[in-house]
Amino acid sequence: MNKRNRYEVHEIGSRRRRIAPALIIAGLVCAGSTLGAGTTLAASAAFQADGNSKALVAQGDVQAAWQEAVARNTEALPPGQTLPGDAPRIFTQPEPEAANYYEAGLFDTIVRQYVRCSWLSVDAGRTPLAKTGAWKAEAAQHLDAFADALPSESLDGFSAYQDSLALEAQKQGVRPSTLEYETDCVPMEAE
Fold first, then answer.
1. To pair with 173 at 20 to 30 A between CA atoms, which of 69, 114, 164, 179?
2. Which range has highest mean pLDDT (7-16, 128-137, 153-162)?
3. Distance between CA atoms of residues 181 and 34, nearest Å
């Protein structure tokens, strides 16, 4: 693939992976802030017409919904790291006049993923904090507690994803947190 489009190509070990940022974020909902498949990010008018009572956020309200989700976040971040002030580009649509809607809870899910990525960056050795054992231990505590904060319907998906990460990491000879960081977080950092 010579030209870049909305897909990013990342090197992980000796394997090349094509990751669509939209699929990453969509997967967060499915697997409780992890990669997965099967969740539709944008809701259409038909979604509402089907009787789904979940609150939806219109395209024009994305920035406000993002800022509210950031303000609601109570999870600690490593020193020197902050959540983005602007909504991630996943919410930037090529056709701004299109009637796009998002489940309101999606914004909190993405905030949780940013927090997880911040601790994964420490655990994977990607920040200066990683050089101290105390911060690596702190990161491990936050990452271990992550599943406890997930909605119960997300636990099975999260556990399955963690299991698949562990198997793939073993094949590649890397730590699972390093693989998760490279797969889930590096594309988010490019924003």
1. 114
2. 153-162
3. 11
Instruction: Give per-residue pLDDT as tens, 110-121.
Output: 999 999 999 999
The whole-angstrom separation of Cα 77 and Cα 112 is 10
pTM of the model: 0.69
- With a cut of 70, say whether residue 141 has pLDDT above it: yes
Predicted local distance difference test score (pLDDT) of residue 112? 93
More confident residue, 160 or 94: 160
Distance of CA 109 to the CA centre of its chain: 7
Residue 56 pairs in a beta bridge with 103
Tell me the DSSP string of the chain: --S--S-EEEEETTEEEEE-HHHHHHHHHHTTSS--S---SEE-HHHHHTT----EEEGGGHHHHHHHHHHH------TT----SSPPGGG--SSTTS--EEETHHHHHHHHHHHHHHHHHHHTT-SGGGGSHHHHHHHHHHHHHGGGGS-GGGHHHHHHHHHHHHHHHHHHTS-HHHHHIIIIIHHHHT-
